[in-house]
Amino acid sequence: MQKVILVGKPNVGKSSLFNRLARQRIAITSDIAGTTRDTNKAVVNLDGREFLLIDSGGLDDSSELFRNVKAKTLNEVKNSDIIIYMVDGKMLPDDEDRALFYKLLKLKKPTALVINKVDSKKDEQRAWEFAQFGAKVVFSISVSHATGVDELTQWIEKFLQAPKIVADESEDFDEFLQEFNDEGELDLDKKEIDYENKNIKVGIIGRVNVGKSSLLNALVKDARAVVSDIAGTTIDPVNEIYEHEGRVYEFVDTAGIRRRGKIEGIERYALNRTEKILENTDVALLVLDSSEPLNELDERIGGLASKFELATIIVLNKWDKSEWEFDKLVFEIRDRFKFLAYAPVISVSALGGKRVHKIYSLINEVYANFTQKLQTSKLNDVIGEATKIHPIPRDKGKSVKIYYAVQFGFAPPKIALVMNKPKCLHFSYKRYLNNKLREAFKLDGSPVVLIPRGRNSQQESENEE
């Protein structure tokens, strides 16, 4: 897939343009220079032509952290196909911008100079000053007012490869045509989700400085995320699409979470964005620092994986610095994270890359369990046997019955328990049934959602009689 990268100094509007082109709020935007420290990526579709849009960190030498950001950005530029260099139209051109732009032109790739924040006649006059850059392709735009962006997207489209739609020879051609709507677009409502072949979305969560960014870098075998001892280095979610042994994974390194009283400045946006990311995630990697004692914040963050009903793996990072015995630490985790009792635990050293490769097989395993279809007959046999061994407590002297169970959802498995008195099934009995299902089915790493449901009113009244 072709890559289009947005490049420029801090606070020129790269993230705002990224969000507009991607048509969703992915990158955090603020007036604080240096808000974007890692690259954000999103697949964008222009009239059937897809490309990977990259929002890079600002080019800045003011600190060691931002010099690392700059180095990563320039490395991303080398691997991109189309370059968009952005400048602030409210400011006069400077020598540093001009030198950076010349450096990019030497790469011999399609390159455009985009002058952002051109909101008035005065700004338009000032924009002419950028003619000294000698750019062959120049766009004056205002992302905030959505002016000039259409012309820019049309220029990008000229360099994109045309889409190829090929019918599967093994299927009936009439059936192939029926999958498209009147506008000739693929009708997704007619397609069932192919869990077996879709990209697995993996969210990396944890406290600040537990090594989430180092883990992402080790998983994709690249310095993908900026790593620093400065707490709160990662504020934007850092996403990376990576293929491993024929399977595609979409990793997101979320911002580290602090105690509420310690969240500062733009980090409050990062906390909200983390929850947004988890709404659209399959597997959570809960990263714990095994060189430190567990604390209440670890439990709260683990609660997010439970809240969003995600397949979960607990990753004990910095194991090379840990003084714990593995079995003893797992025992404490099971005691403190009872709501994640189903999550497997693995110890790694992300900086050294030790045992990180084993995470892939764990992801595949818990994802398969997370998306599986449980055999209906076996499901009902298990529920029936469980209620015989330990009958449901009666309600005001009347029996409470489960007539049958049926799976109605996936990711995670969602099971309806059709009953005569659905409101009378205590949560402790649901936990008992959940444990019985785990004994009978392979459900490691995946939550199971049990929902009591009543039959129609006529059937219920007949049962009462």
TrEMBL record:
Binding partners and assembly: Associates with the 50S ribosomal subunit.
Residues holding GTP 1: 8-15, 55-59, 116-119
CDD domains per the UniProt record, alphabetical: EngA1, EngA2
The protein's role, per its UniProt record: GTPase that plays an essential role in the late steps of ribosome biogenesis.
UniProt-recorded name of the protein: GTPase Der
Signal peptide: none
Keywords on record: GTP-binding, Nucleotide-binding, Repeat, Ribosome biogenesis
Species in which this protein is naturally found: Campylobacter suis
Family: Belongs to the TRAFAC class TrmE-Era-EngA-EngB-Septin-like GTPase superfamily. EngA (Der) GTPase family.
Keyword GTP-binding: yes
InterPro entries from the UniProt entry: G_ENGA, GTP-bd, GTPase_Der, KH_dom-like, KH_dom-like_a/b, P-loop_NTPase, Small_GTP-bd
Domain EngA-type G, first and last residues per copy: 200-371
Residues the record lists as binding GTP 2: 206-213, 253-257, 317-320
